[in-house]
Amino acid sequence: MPIVTVTRRLRFNAAHRVHNPALSDADNTRLFGKCNNPNWHGHNYTLDVSVRGPVAEDTGYVIDLGALRAIVEREVLSQTDHRNFNIDVPYMQGINPTTENIVVAMWQVLGPAIAPATLQRLRLWETENNYVDYSGE
Ligand SMILES: Nc1nc2c(c(=O)[nH]1)N=C([C@H](O)[C@H](O)COP(=O)(O)OP(=O)(O)OP(=O)(O)O)CN2
Ligand SMILES: [Zn+2]
C-alpha cells in the first residue's frame, strides 16, 4: 500500500511580544530588538499541516483534508486566531512566543488530536520570508 504525505494550509493572525522574563530589559532589547516591543506587534501566520499514511483503498485518501482542517481549527485556531500569544492562548502560557516555540506547542496539541493518523510535519510561516519546520523530535 503506498505511503503518501498530504498537507493542509491554514491561515490565522495573532499578536505577540518576543520576550524572556528571566532576562533584563536591556538583554531582551539586545536579543529581540523590535520584536520585544512592549505594546505587541502582529503577524499573518500560515500553518502547513502534513499527515503521512497509507492511501485507503475505499476512499483513496490518507485523511480527508476537510476533516483535517476541522481538527486544526477546533484544536488550535479557535484558541489562536485574532488572539495574543502572550496573554490569550492556553497552550502558550509561560512560553516565549517565538515561531519555534509556537510550532512545538501546536504539535503537542495536534499530535494526539490527529491520531490514529500520523502528524508528519508542521511548517509555520511567521512572515512571507520566515518559516520553521517541526517533525516531533
Ligand atoms: N529564529 C527566529 N527569529 C526571529 C523570530 C522567530 O520567531 N524565530 N521572530 C522574529 C519576530 O517575531 C519578528 O517580528 C519577525 O518579523 P520581521 O523581522 O519583520 O521579519 P520579516 O522577514 O518580515 O522582515 P525583514 O525585516 O525583511 O527581516 C524575529 N526573528
Ligand atoms: Zn513577531
Features:
137 residues, alpha+beta, Tetrahydropterin Synthase, Chain A, 5 strands, binds ligand LPXRUNBV, binds zinc ion
What does this structure look like?
This protein has helices at residues 25-32, 65-75, 99-114; strands spanning 3-16, 41-54, 83-84, 118-125, 131-134. It is an alpha+beta fold and 137 residues long. The chain has one domain (3-134): 6-pyruvoyl tetrahydropterin synthase/QueD (Tetrahydropterin Synthase, Chain A, 2-Layer Sandwich), CATH 3.30.479. A 5-stranded mixed β-sheet has the order 3-1-2-4-5. A hairpin with a 5-residue loop joins strand 4 (118-125) and strand 5. Helix 2 (65-75) packs across helix 3 (99-114). It starts with a strand and ends with a strand. It binds the ligand Nc1nc2c(c(=O)[nH]1)N=C([C@H](O)[C@H](O)COP(=O)(O)OP(=O)(O)OP(=O)(O)O)CN2 and zinc ion. The ligand Nc1nc2c(c(=O)[nH]1)N=C([C@H](O)[C@H](O)COP(=O)(O)OP(=O)(O)OP(=O)(O)O)CN2 is lined by residues 18, 35, 41, 98-100, 126-127, 129-130. Residues 18, 35, 41, 98-100, 126-127, 129-130 line the site of the ligand Nc1nc2c(c(=O)[nH]1)N=C([C@H](O)[C@H](O)COP(=O)(O)OP(=O)(O)OP(=O)(O)O)CN2.
What would a concise description of this structure say?
With 137 residues, this protein is α+β, with helices and mostly antiparallel strands.
**Largest sheet, strands/sense/barrel:** 5 strands, mixed
- What is the terminal separation in angstroms? 26 Å
Shape: elongated
Helix proportion range: 25-40%
Kindly identify the CATH topology.
Answer: Tetrahydropterin Synthase, Chain A
Structural class: alpha+beta
Strand content: 25-35%
